[in-house]
Amino acid sequence: MNTVPLNLLSLSACCVDFYPQLGKSYMGGNSLNVASMWKKLAPDAHVSVITSLGNDTNGKMIVDFFNSKGIDTSHVYSNDGITANNQLRVDEEGERFGIEGTWQGGLLETFLLSETDWKWVAKQDIVAVPANNINFRKMIEKKHAKQLLSVDYLDIENHLPMEETVEKTDIAFITARPHLLDQYKALAFRKNKLVVVTLGALGSYAFYGGETFHQPAITVPKVVDTTGCGDAYQAAFALTYLKTNTVQQAMYQGALAASQILQAWGGVGNIE
After folding, report:
1. Given CB 3.0 to 4.6 Å as the disulfide criterion, which of 34, 140, 182, 232 pairs with 168?
2. Per-residue pLDDT tens for 108-120?
């Protein structure tokens, strides 16, 4: 029996991360990482990205990567300017840290979707977006009932407006600390929304419908670089949840995807 391929869209952060300790650059950013994992897990899905890149070496590297993976670039815009870029360092345990003062948002900082872009968004089965994106507020206004909206509220230290916007989401992800779990449980139950809290090596917790779920992190031989593992988790979780409507299964697939990424350098790790 033939089925219609899923339409999966990530919006809109794509960047290049430079690692001074290696003298190498790797592609990354929430949207690039999510789209890449989707394409790996669901090769038959129609995966696309909406973003803005510069006409520079970094931008060309990202477009070439998307094309090589079969990710739709019809809404990837290349213009005069700088592709978002960053510098990272990784400690002996593989934990990733941004190097203060190195982030350059470039064209991404002011990139607003056009009406043509929003028409494309309306066709998607899943839309993944970080809550710090300039288009986030409009995205939660335009979301329709048949669409699964996956929102990354990043790390607790980013102080993004989760309390006031979570009711517009279908899945809300945040990286937090164990002592805050009760706070997120209360929020999820009060708003009747699926909230997923990731805790790195301590695994993840999900709160939904009055139930609490836990998924331990999957042990790997060596953690090389944690960059992008949260994005991989979110991509696999959202895709699995859409297909199965089962939180625990989605959490396991998320943990499995994250474990693959953290065993290699860069945001897309072993996907490359």
Report:
1. 140
2. 999 999 999 999 9
